[in-house]
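Q: Fold this one first, please.
A: Sequence and structure below.
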Amino acid sequence: MTRTELDNQTPAAARLRTSWALAAAGGLLLALGPLLGVVDGADPAFTSWPLLALLALAPPAAAGVLLMRGRPFVAAGLIAATGVFAVGRLLSDAQVFLDAMDVARPELFRPTTLVAVTPALGVWLLIAGHLLTIAAGALSAGRAGMPADESEPPTLVAIPVFISLFAAVGLLGKPFTSTDPFQLDRGPWDLPTVGLIGGLLIAVAVPLATALAASSPDPDTREGGTFGVSLSLLAVVVPPLAAGTVATGLGVTGGSVTAFTVALLLPGVPLLGRTARLLRGERDATRDPELPTPRRMHVAAGVFAVLAATAMLVGAFLPQLTLSTGGAAPDLASVSLLWVAGLAFGALGLLLLVPATAATVRPALIGGLFAMQLAAAGIVEVVTAASQVGVAQPGAGFWLMVVEAPLGLLALACAGLASAIERENLGETKRDQLPVAELGALLLAGLFSVGAFALPTMKGDEYTSPTLIPDNDPAVSWTLLLALTTLIITLVAVSRSRPARGAASLVGLALLMGVRALELPLTGDRVEGATAAPGTWLALAAIAALLIAAGLMGSRANR
């Protein structure tokens, strides 16, 4: 159960308060360092101190809120995880003091000449801030000396650790790309000894802290440790991502984007364990004492969905490509699909925020999410191909579009937990036998959908749109395969669902098929002699079958 009773544990309470005070002081120093300047003779590549201050103060601020809300051991886990990262970050910032010209830290300074810069007061504040953070983490480790409650054994330990390994690999690569001869784009392997050790320790801290948190028998430690890893990882990867996005001559790397994606995904992993227990019917008052209400999960899912849609829409507005020559890149035809999918998913997110419609539209979320992935697949294929050839690199719009995937998955996880909670509250419900007309519509929708994904939607002079067979467009083909698999699984689930929920799921699948059907009208003007291929007509037929089935199930639900 969640523990808040520290009144009778005076030493533990004192240690937790002391650790938070140290973490807050360390965060304040980490925020002041960039503001005062870490070197003399060079300025940051952009006005970075507000962003760096936010990232530095976020962990102690979150821990303080948790302490005030009676969640002291969640706060302890968060502070402890932050302390694990602070060791590597200390050495990385110490390299600035030892030899600043060997460091690739455009958020702190960007050299404009070959004249060496000299350390300033700010770098000492950074080092002091990391030392205080390490001390705070050491005091918070082991839940401030409180015994662990073994009433809830850890579940799904391998999943967060496996996800964190991707971030570790991403951190070992270059944090950004650079065409500026004065600004190095070095990764950990290219740095001197101190910087190399610091970079390696930061990379190792991700799976280490994640494993320590995920394997704890205490649910508060698992929750706090996961949040601490995410916040610490964001503090490491967001500055180079921001520099690569807004600074001239700098670009974003896939490794940084991967680490950023992991930081967004990790907080949703504990939801998987709780959802799995609910679906298995293993919840009890000891294991899940503070089960959130469906309303809270609907709001969380709606917020993540709106954020994902916003990222896609803003990404569609900004350039997807940046030419290596520095000129303006041509507009990509597939961007039109981003607008359609983003607006549809955003509308679902807004409806999730409305209590009267949240439960009704929730099942449509999975179809809307895969509609966005299908719309984004064409962009990914083009941008990846251009980057491999060397004629261009991903632009700010592309990276914003990529951010929608983890946000959408978090929305789906929250929606899934809301569904599991609702199912448990209602108990077992009697399912009516599926009428023949609805069954026939579902079968036709499945058959038409298979054809729509397996056959091209558009043909032109020396051009055939991608299908399930990966040839020249593997990213699109694999996305089509995943979308089709999800569609078939959802259709099977719909046949066993309550009518209202099944109808909403079918509407979501209709959104997915709509993106497939709109490929010709929205992108065909870029293909000479473009005509509709069988996939377009089958996609339209699938949409009709899905909507008919949804209408039949909806009318049955209202009887």
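Q: Good. Now the second chain.
A: Here it is, same layout.
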Amino acid sequence: MILATDLDGTFLAGDAAARHRLYRLVDQHPGIRLIFITGRGLEAVMPLLSDPALPRPDYVVCDVGATVVDGHTLQPLQPLQSLIDAHWPGEQVVAAAMRPFTALQRQDVPQERRCSYFCDPATLAPLRVQIQAAAQALGCDVLYSADRYLDILPPDTDKGRTLAALARLLDLPRERILVAGDTLNDLSMYTAGFRGVCVGDSEPALTSATAALGNTYHAQAPGCGGILEAIEHFGLLPADDAWLKPPATTRAEGADLVMLYHRMPFDEVMENGVLVQRPPRSPNGIIPSLLSFFQGGQTGSWVAWGIDDPKRGPFQTHMAVDAEHYPTLTAARVPLTRQEVDIFYKRFSKEAFWPMLHVFWERARFREDDWQVFLKVNRRFAEATAAEAAHGATVWIHDYNLWMVPATLRELRPDLKIAFFHHTYFPSADVFNVVPWRREIIGSLLSCDYIGFHIPRQVENFVDVVRGAMPAERLAWESCAPRFLTYGCAVGLDTMTTRIRVGDREVALGAHPVGTDLRRIHDVLARPGVRNDIFKLRREIGARKLVLSVERLDYTKGTLAKLEAFERLLEQHPDRQGNVTLLMVCVPAAREMTVYRTLQNQIEQAVGRINGRFSRLDWTPVRFFAQALPFEEVVAHYAAAQVMWITPLRDGLNLVAKEFVATHGIEGTSGVLVLSEFAGAAAELKGAVLTNPHDPADLTAGLLQALSMPDEEAGGRMRQLFGTVEYHDVDRWGREFLEAVKATGNPA
């Protein structure tokens, strides 16, 4: 069958259960084609195409029949569109002809090949003959509907005639076409001879005008419910069609909290041909915090990928995480081949989305084949989650690798409460919109009940992108102060949106900077081996000041600019030569990520140049380590350093800055934090010396300020910083996020 349906009041109306049932039927049934046929302009339809809850139409007829496009490519459907265009004199010509009728009010909505006006019946009555004559002089038709809307259209153009022409062009069987509408604007579809349904709550004028039409059914239920009635009434699908059956009800048992993260809370290694678990080597403090929510008997699942390799034996879909500490938590492993992981994560995520998110859009490489793998992997995550979650459970999804999970998950399990936390930076619309699939991504995220970011700036950037993609209403907002900087840094902001409405869906938003794990750092500092390492480092540095830089090898980190700034410091302030050492720990990327090889060569050349220019027998200005250090050694370096120099060109947050502060706060020492004002943490860490990494002079000046800072000032700044880091630790971050999710009320 072919469903040709009006939108407002029809396909977008009806109770939630009827909408979900019809959308599922149309979206999944292999024998149904869908045509949107609406008075809206194409621009006003495009936001609906981004909504994952709505099935994608095969064709779209807009502007009351004047615009016809392919629903997937949005390209004009030829030669039908050209035939309509040939008889349209042009918007400016028509508007000029209507200008003498000052009682007409032009609609300020997107429209093409038509001019639309507001006009009530009393005003129109004395002008109707003159307006008709003016339109006919241009070879145009006049359509008046709903006692309000006046449209000037190309000749012989309305919904019914355009649909009939489309059916002829595509050779669609007329007896299999069902038209659906609710206003007099839709009358031409019924009089064109198609089977039709006037959904419940239709305009009385439409009901009256179609009363004598034998091929028109008047439904009781409004919107989608009425369309479902008509499908049954006309027998357009067999009564035993499997797709007509409602989806199976969700089971009551299952996980109350489902965590979707990019990796398991343990490392998987093969030992003697057996897959075993080992404690994670990464010092990621988020994982222990997330695990803590599964203490106390709450049933839970942790969904992440597992390598599906025949050499490892049969794939295990479920594993216990820690039977002693988390007896009710299960690891649900999503089977991915190594090739899928390489494409989905190591290549596509890092070569397409990562540079765009960090405002390096010119580096982004978008490949349609990779996007299809990304979609497939995200759907597998969604299906695994749907199978794990109890009815009404909370699902917490982490980061951009899983952007498309909410869309599929909402379709599969509308009962769930879906929350998403974006760990990376989120850019403004002028950057994000370079993504070819931006509308699909935003549509998926808007399937969530709650979306969290690190800082208010990233929340507002998201709202900026949404407003550029679809009509959005800002329902609630709050002041950013005193929690965050307002005008004091590049990522500061004064107010933040906390709730938006898009269509009939409300989404709550919030800023939640991830905290650090103080217990872990405290325990590390208490170890005798670490105390000995700190002593050795301090003795080795001696009277010199140690400037520390710890970061991954990435073009977003500003490593080259930092080295050049240090070189300028030694040039411009010779007294600093021999008195300061820059120790750089630059963790290399995985070998598969070849995009970083050139950068590593450039960094190593800069280090060699600086050391070649300024080294002495007893002093090397830059000590460079291109390797990952154990967390214990990193903490020892934090404690030994007088200055922490963190200068990313763009960063979602930067936990290294907080770890440095936590270390000196616990130690009671007064290290100085020099932090890029383009790092998310800059909006939160009041007391840091902020620097602009895009300004070479300011980079050097910020470091000089830190090296010259009196002890009293350094101590005061560190106490202020530690107060923030100690209070807003990783545990509080997790608790406040889930509390905000719970406050959103019932699931969508």
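Q: Anything worth noting on the second one?
A: The chain has a mean pLDDT of 92.
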